[in-house]
Write a structure and sequence with these properties.
Layout (H helix, E strand, L loop, with lengths): L6 E8 L3 E11 L2 E11 L2 H8 L4 H21 L4 E5 L1 H4 L4 H12 L3 E3 L2 H20 L7 E7 L4 E7 L2 E8 L3 H5 L4 H4 L4 H12 L1 H8 L3 E7 L1 H9 L9 E4 L1 H9 L6 H8 L3 H21 L3 E5 L3 H14 L3 H19 L4 H17 L7 H13 L11 H10 L8 H13 L10 H4 L3 H19 L10 E7 L2 E7 L5 H18 L2 E6 L7
Parallel strand pairs: 1-4, 4-5, 6-9, 9-11, 13-14
Antiparallel strand pairs: 1-2, 2-3, 6-7, 7-8, 10-11, 12-13
Helix pairs in contact: 2-4, 5-14, 8-13, 11-13, 12-13, 15-17, 16-17, 16-21, 17-19, 17-21, 18-19, 19-21, 21-22
Length: 521
């Protein structure tokens, strides 16, 4: 959907080490102009990891900066904006008070981004630029995007158009440093201790990463730029810098044990920046030592750039969005495969449920809800790996315990509830999982459960007897015409049983009709 004219908007970000505003003029995916950008370095992350909360003084500082950004928006005549908060707000013990004070003092609502979504926005921009503009990665070889922030580490592997792997660890650079007190950090044995600590941290992922034969590793953000400068690259205008791994290893070895103090003395870095950079360098070295890539790529792309670009791409509904969704569906299938689900049956449920969701758009099923239904269809049987009894319960916990790329935490809660109810039971406020949802989430769950049950019924025996399905609505009845040459008694009886809940939720009858000629007897 091409935009009728340039879309102008502002994206604001409250982060652990900086606050920023980016004013953007978006025409299409390849024509994004930054009208203005302002950023201020802050030490909110250090305070958060020391005290688990932000002080009143810090909240006042956040609001003061945001008021200045609002004035900048007014000067440019920008009325469309969105404010995002990442680790520093997401993990604060007094998060509600922070959000409330920001709204009271500035009138702005904060969209708090969970870690998988934070990584996802940066990945989307980086993947597009690397594959469509710079073409620095070989489409036949795997690339690892390593996203190290103050609060966590994201590892995302792709090859060509396929997304192969995605994991997130809640152990970022500042969080690692705050695991040790000041005396421990100043010890001569600290470099070895923290190296061993980080080596153990990535241990569970090391073997899995090695299976992909990764050719390139990409590190993005401020720390990537800092490391490039430490290696003598003073260029500030290039988004992408390629460096041989031996050059980076030479930098690491030159320290005889990297410490924040050595970084401060050698490069005159501020203490706060050195405390972030030191574990980032060691962790990066641990990763590349484990997988031995052929090249290292340092990218300047930040969360602010990623979300500013993504906002316009999403508003345009650019086809690239569908490519990303297909990649995320691939990852969901990889998760299901780890739990040995029936992939053929899951594919049938995904196919049928997608058809129902598309047909039912006018019944309050937006396209995004249909996408959530697809993910639920892929994951609905993962609980059977744990136990066939009460497998919906086990599936719920597996979904909630898994980072699902491209989904917000709220969307993941919806998917988890759908897989919980997909086989039996009725969504009810008497159930703790369902009761914890917002009213909008509850509506999403009830509709998607109704859809996925009739979709499952069409392959009730998991033997793919129905080759084709056509849907047609007449006089508030949804006819499901199925083409088959086999006995579908089980599918028929199961469908009739699940049709009652469908009718209750959508306010329309649904009837299964054998034959693909749309002839209703």
């Amino acid at each position: 959907m091409a935009l009728p004219k340039a879309l102008r908007y502002a994206v604001l970000h409250v982060g652990s080490s900086s606050m920023s505003i980016t004013i953007v003029e978006y025409r299409d995916i390849d024509d994004v102009r930054i009208i203005d950008h302002a950023a201020r370095e802050v030490t909110f992350g250090e305070e958060l990891f020391q005290t688990s909360r932000l002080s009143f003084k810090t909240i006042e500082e956040i609001c003061h900066i945001l008021k200045g950004y609002k004035q900048l928006m007014a000067d440019y005549g920008v009325t469309r904006s969105r404010l995002y908060g990442t680790t520093v707000i997401r993990e604060a013990a007094n998060r509600r008070s922070i959000l409330d004070q920001i709204y009271i003092q500035t009138g702005m609502r904060v969209d708090v981004i969970d870690m998988p979504k934070e990584v996802y926005y940066k990945y989307a921009l980086l993947y597009y630029k690397m594959t469509n503009q710079y073409r620095l990665t070989d489409p036949t070889k795997a690339t690892l995007f390593l996203d190290i922030t103050s609060g966590g580490v994201g590892l995302t592997v792709w090859r060509g158009e396929s997304l192969l792997f995605q994991r997130n660890m809640h152990s970022g650079s500042l969080r690692v440093m705050e695991s040790f007190n000041r005396n421990q950090r100043s010890s001569t044995s600290f470099p070895m201790a923290i190296t061993e600590y980080l080596h153990r941290m990535i241990g569970p992922l090391r073997e899995e990463l090695q299976t992909f034969n990764i050719n390139s590793v990409i590190l993005s953000g401020d720390e990537a730029q800092y490391m490039a400068r430490l290696m003598g690259d003073e260029s500030n205008k290039d988004d992408i810098i390629t460096i041989e791994p031996e050059r980076f290893k030479g930098l690491i070895n030159s320290f005889d044990g990297v410490t924040a103090t050595k970084l401060i003395n050698r490069y005159k870095l501020p203490e706060y920046k050195a405390n972030i950079l030191m574990p980032t360098m060691i962790l990066f070295n641990e990763i590349i030592t484990a997988i031995e890539p052929k090249s290292l790529i340092f990218s300047s792309f930040s969360f602010s750039q990623g979300i500013s670009w993504f906002y316009g791409v999403e508003a345009e509904n650019n086809p690239f969005m569908y490519q990303l969704r297909e990649q995320n569906a691939q990852l969901a299938r990889a998760v299901a495969e780890r739990y040995h689900t029936d992939s053929i049956h899951d594919a049938e449920v995904e196919r049928f449920s997608s058809l129902f969701c598309k047909t039912l758009r006018h019944k309050g099923l937006p396209e995004r809800w249909g996408y959530l239904c697809r993910i639920a269809a892929i994951l609905c049987s993962v609980g059977k790996f744990v136990n066939l009894r009460n497998h919906g319960e086990h599936a719920y916990h597996i979904v909630m315990g898994t980072d699902i790329f491209g989904l917000s935490e709220e969307e993941k809660q919806v998917v988890a509830n759908v897989v919980y109810y997909h086989y039996k039971g009725t969504p009810s406020d008497d159930d703790a999982y369902f009761n914890a949802l917002t009213e909008l989430q509850k509506i999403q769950v009830t509709k998607l459960v109704a859809v996925i049950r009739v979709a499952c019924a069409l392959d009730a025996g998991s033997n793919q007897k129905i080759s084709d399905v056509t849907l047609e609505e007449r006089d508030n009845v949804l006819y499901v015409f199925c083409r088959t040459n086999e006995d579908i008694s089980l599918e028929w009886w199961t469908f009739i049983g699940d049709s009652e809940y469908f009718t209750e939720v959508f306010g329309m009858e649904i009837k299964l009709v054998r034959g693909g000629d749309r002839h209703v007897q």
